[in-house]
Amino acid sequence: MTDAAAGETPQERTASARPDDRIPSVLRFSTELVAWVTTPWVLAGYSWLLAALSLVVLIGLPAVLSTPGDKNSVIVAVPGWATILMVLAELGAAVVSSWLLWLLWPVWAAVPVTLLAAAAVVTEQPRWRWLVSLKQGLSRHV
Q1: Residue 113 has pLDDT above 80, yes or no
Q2: Which CA distances in Å does 125 have to 37, 90, 103, 120?
């Protein structure tokens, strides 16, 4: 349904209201890369199965689950708060794993990861507020 006054659909209005997140995306992705490397590395010392499962959770879930309006293609729609929890899990995994690698990584390498994750959390705030405010479209994708 098109809004006569604005000339765009409700989904287009919501997508156009999406905050510019180029810098937060770079920070988020950089931290995700650290999580994808360090988490399986830490878990491989205990079990290769846990290491593989961590990759499924850290890479697979966010690839399949997404909030309508946040990504162009949605495979399985989830509410905004679920997307926020997945991002927090990625950031947390990067920080915890980087500190647990102290036998292989020097401590000075874990400090920048922690600062990177903190910067990602700070810069993600507008996107997270926007994600929580999304109400439309979820029922059509579920």
Answers
A1: yes
A2: 25, 16, 34, 9
Structure tokens at 38: 């360090």
Tokens matching residue 108: 């000075």
pLDDT in tens, 12-31: 445 557 898 899 999 999 99
SS3 per residue for 36-70? HHHHHHHHHCCCHHHHHHHHHHHHHHHHHEECECC
3-class DSSP state of 29: helix
Could you tell me if 43 and 50 are in contact, meaning their C-beta atoms sit under 8 angstroms apart?
yes
Q: How far apart are CA 142 and CA 133, in angstroms?
A: 18
Contact 68, 77 (CB under 8 A): yes
Identify the pLDDT of residue 109. 87
User: How many Å separate Cα 114 from the centre of its chain?
Assistant: 16
Give the Cα separation of 105 and 103 in Å (integer): 6
